[in-house]
């Protein structure tokens, strides 16, 4: 379950248990029914801002935000701990924890072990050390990633409105609630606004993006109003008053899900049409002969995007995968036969630049981008 800053921030600054208490009672009811909960909680920056307001009230720099997060993390966990009799565990994740396969699996093992001990993890992004270009950005998407990480049955997103509407109900009186979404179409995504609350980083669009990620992993998502005590009470009894976003019937293999949705490094491998077809339609690995060039500063073991020429000079992202060679090495072996890799580099990590087992195709979900052009 993800709880946003708007449900924890006090009107005068800092954190409040006003809405957290009802959510904690819901979690306790779940525990009593034998359900395991992983809590993804925002609020650290809001808590830290109050503690530093005499020193940096107007400071919006990244360093100030990180200092607020460092102070506020303990406050956030302390708030939740006051509401439970059993122990909680703080788990802070970074972009690199989710991008690196070994660290990703380590995080999954830690969360699973905590749940085995009946300890509820309280997860947040580690804003204290994250840098702008390598942040996860919002806890909605982090919650979807964590849901897949622990193989959750359901993703619950507690927000400050009643769910998805056809338009923003705070500015459009004609907006109507959407109780159920069978598929996240372009029209559904267009219903979401872009802005979040004054204390949070996400809005309705990030919640739909999170639901889309969760659906890919076979996980349904529920959006509900965490400020409405009746809604929370009904939810504890299995009755939803909000929006249910369904999942697809099939479920990606956990590794393929990770490859498709984890953050990639800045950079890409540009391939020709033949290689693009082989990857997209024949389940092939990426070999040096089909590579035009590599852009960026990525290293061996990094997750990168594989792109090909699209329309109007744009590049089309066809797949994502773990590179067996760094960008500089790929540029030295591009357009060569696999048997020549050793001669070009003086060593070889194998004939595949990206092995098919380390590669996930995007199909029609691939993006056109001019960023690398």
From TrEMBL:
UniProtKB keywords = Amino-acid biosynthesis, ATP-binding, Cytoplasm, Kinase, Nucleotide-binding, Proline biosynthesis, Transferase
Q: Which sequence ranges form a coiled-coil region, renumbered to this chain?
A: none
The UniProt record lists the PUA domain at 267-354
- Give a short account of what the protein does: Catalyzes the transfer of a phosphate group to glutamate to form L-glutamate 5-phosphate.
One Pfam family in the UniProt entry: AA_kinase
Cite a single GO MF annotation: RNA binding
Q: Where does substrate bind?
A: 42, 127, 139
Q: Which organism is it from?
A: Rhodanobacter fulvus Jip2
Q: Which InterPro entries match?
A: AceGlu_kinase-like_sf (IPR036393), Asp/Glu/Uridylate_kinase (IPR001048), G5K_ProB (IPR041739), Glu/AcGlu_kinase (IPR001057), Glu_5kinase (IPR011529), Glu_5kinase/COase_Synthase (IPR005715), Glutamate_5-kinase_CS (IPR019797), PUA (IPR002478)
Superkingdom of this protein's organism: Bacteria
The pathway it acts in is: Amino-acid biosynthesis; L-proline biosynthesis; L-glutamate 5-semialdehyde from L-glutamate: step 1/2
Descriptive protein name: Glutamate 5-kinase
> Where is the protein localized?
Cytoplasm
Q: Which GO terms describe its cellular component?
A: cytosol
Which terms does the UniProt entry file under GO BP? L-proline biosynthetic process
Q: Family assignment?
A: Belongs to the glutamate 5-kinase family.
Does the keyword Transferase belong to this entry? yes
EC numbers listed for it are 2.7.2.11
Catalyzes what? Answer: L-glutamate + ATP = L-glutamyl 5-phosphate + ADP
Positions binding ATP in this chain are: 2, 159-160, 201-207
């Amino acid at each position: 379950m993800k709880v946003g800053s708007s449900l924890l921030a006090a009107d005068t600054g800092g954190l409040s248990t006003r809405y957290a208490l009802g959510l904690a009672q819901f979690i306790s009811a779940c525990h009593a029914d034998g359900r395991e909960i992983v809590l993804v909680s925002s609020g650290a920056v809001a808590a830290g801002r109050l503690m530093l307001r005499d020193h940096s009230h107007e400071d919006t720099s990244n360093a100030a935000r990180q200092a607020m997060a460092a102070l506020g993390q303990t406050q956030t966990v302390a708030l939740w701990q006051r509401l439970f009799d059993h122990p909680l565990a703080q788990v802070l994740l970074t972009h690199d924890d989710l991008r690196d396969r070994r660290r990703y699996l380590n995080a999954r093992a830690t969360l699973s072990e905590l749940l085995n001990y009946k300890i509820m993890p309280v997860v947040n992004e580690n804003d204290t050390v994250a840098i702008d270009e390598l942040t996860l950005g919002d806890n909605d998407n982090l919650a979807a990633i964590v849901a897949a990480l622990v193989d959750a049955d359901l993703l619950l997103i507690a927000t400050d409105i009643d769910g998805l509407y056809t338009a923003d109900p705070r500015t459009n009186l004609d907006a109507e609630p959407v109780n159920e979404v069978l598929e996240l179409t372009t029209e559904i995504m267009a219903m979401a606004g872009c802005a979040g609350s004054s204390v949070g980083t996400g809005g309705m669009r990030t919640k739909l993006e999170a639901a889309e990620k969760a659906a890919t992993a076979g996980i349904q998502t529920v959006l509900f109003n965490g400020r409405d005590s009746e809604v929370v009470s009904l939810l504890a009894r299995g009755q939803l008053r909000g929006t249910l976003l369904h999942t697809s019937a099939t479920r990606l293999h956990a590794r393929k899900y990770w490859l498709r949705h984890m953050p990639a490094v800045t950079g890409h491998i540009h391939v020709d049409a033949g290689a693009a077809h082989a990857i997209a339609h024949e389940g092939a690995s990426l070999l040096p002969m089909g590579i035009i060039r590599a852009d960026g500063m990525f290293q061996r073991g990094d997750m990168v995007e594989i792109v090909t020429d699209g329309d109007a000079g744009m590049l089309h992202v066809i797949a994502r995968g773990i590179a067996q060679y760094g960008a500089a090495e790929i540029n030295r072996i591009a357009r060569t036969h696999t048997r020549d890799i050793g001669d070009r580099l003086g060593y070889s990590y194998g004939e595949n630049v990206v092995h098919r087992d380390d590669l996930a195709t995007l199909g029609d979900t691939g993006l056109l981008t001019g960023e690398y052009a």
